[in-house]
Amino acid sequence: MKKVFLPVSLALLAGLTVSCSTTEYKKYAGDEAKQVASILRENGCMDCHSANAPLPFYGNFPVIGSVVKADMVEGTRYVDFTDMLDALDNGKPVSEVDLAKLENTAMSGSMPPAKFSYMPNHWGTSLDKDEKAVILAWAAKERKAHYQSPTVAEEFANEPLQPLMESIPVDSAKVALGCALYNDTRLSADNTISCASCHGLETGGVDRKQYSEGINGQLGGVNAPTVYNAALNFAQFWDGRAADLKEQAAGPPLNPVEMGHKSFDDICAVLAEDKEFTKAFTAVYPDGFSQSNITEAIAEFEKTLLTPSRFDKYLRGDKSALSAEEIEGYDLFKSHKCATCHVGMNIGGQSYDYMGIKNSYFDYRGTGLTDGDNGRYSVTKKETDLHKFKTPTLRNVMITYPYMHDGSVKTVEDAVRIMHEFQIGTAISDADMTKIVAFLHSLTGEYNGKTLQ
């Protein structure tokens, strides 16, 4: 790590503010959630990991002020613990990603940053062994209660990544209708585009194009995410504008760039002309064609698109499922902090994360900003959500190229390097790269008994 030498004003500040280690959390013995909340507060974590944190008095000092402000911005871009603190205080489940990030911090001892840790005003803010033990015990308990897969082997029960469940309960009759609708070009105004056009089941659940082509040759503004395992995402689309698969399925048919219908009434009228399909549809939905019924059927089909992989077999206890290199790659995946955002059964899809925490990805890309780069901001209009995107699943990542929300990265190796540079602030060695990519190969799954290609 490059050693950072701070300006004289920081040294002067050291004499102005002194804090001591706290044991305040111990009064909540028996309630690990409240203990963790107390540690976050008393150790000053919220000073840099909350968008609502006030600027400290020295934040306006010459020289040091810009350092402090930049660190506060970077801290909240990495993780904002405000919602987590509220959940801890009120006995609610915390985000799986927030859990993983706090757990990683406790294990790595990476906070506070080295450039501040020697200063008296940060004495006592580093986690001691007892505080780490409290956080790690709570994290394991929280993961077991809310995020542990029913198929995981006991020895892997507390891993940040979890194996897929066997299946999601579905209505088979609705699945059959949904499958037909998923492949039906009548959902587009000119009868040329189906859901499968952009999310091909033979091509990793994507179309392998930078931007998908809709009616009249129009191009979308972001890269098409995979439909495989999408049922496990906490929200749908890169910007999270759809809460679930049903809501997501209602978007493309009415998008003028994608499928171009004016309304679902038009879609229903077109489908109703097919007497045989109408008969099959009304046998399942007696009230006939409607936006709700059509999108529910498509969503029901998409719930079946789970792709168990060799990595799932490994987490279920089959040690022979992965090679030694792939296991080393998984360990590196965790130690390089990849498993703080790409977590859980879907190995992603559980949070919105800022693109370019350490350096400006968009300056690096050098093509100017587009509406597609707004990310979550497009929905919330909150400045703090600008350039935040739903973290994609890494399942089948080797076959879902090109990468990033803008589809500008062609190889998985380049994607891994970019994520290290812009999200972690480090350069990855060729040796580590080779092993991590080997691990990523193990995430390519099966559908209908066949390995995806």
Q: How are the SSEs ordered, and which strands pair?
A:
Elements: H1 8-14, H2 32-42, H3 64-78, H4 82-89, H5 96-108, H6 114-117, H7 129-146, H8 172-182, H9 195-198, H10 245-249, H11 251-254, H12 264-272, H13 275-284, H14 291-302, H15 310-315, H16 324-335, E1 352-354, H17 361-365, H18 377-380, E2 388-390, H19 412-424, H20 430-441, E3 446-447, E4 450-451
Antiparallel strand pairs: 1-2, 3-4
Helix pairs in contact: 2-7, 5-7, 8-14, 16-20
Brief rundown of the structure:
The chain has 453 residues and is an all-alpha fold.
Could you characterize what this model shows?
The longest helix is centred in the first third of the chain and has 18 residues, at 129-146. The chain is built from 20 helices and four strands. The chain has helices at residues 8-14, 32-42, 64-78, 82-89, 96-108, 114-117, 129-146, 172-182, 195-198, 245-249, 251-254, 264-272, 275-284, 291-302, 310-315, 324-335, 361-365, 377-380, 412-424, 430-441, and strands spanning 352-354, 388-390, 446-447, 450-451. Mean pLDDT is 93; it is low at 1-20. With 453 residues, it is mainly alpha-helical. The protein has three domains: 8-147, no CATH class; 172-302, Cytochrome Bc1 Complex, Chain D, domain 2; 310-451, Cytochrome c-like domain (Cytochrome Bc1 Complex, Chain D, domain 2, Orthogonal Bundle), CATH 1.10.760.10. The strands form two sheets. Strands 1-2 form a two-stranded antiparallel ribbon. Strands 3-4 form a two-stranded antiparallel sheet. The protein starts with 7 loop residues before the first helix and ends with a strand. Helix 16 crosses helix 20 (430-441).
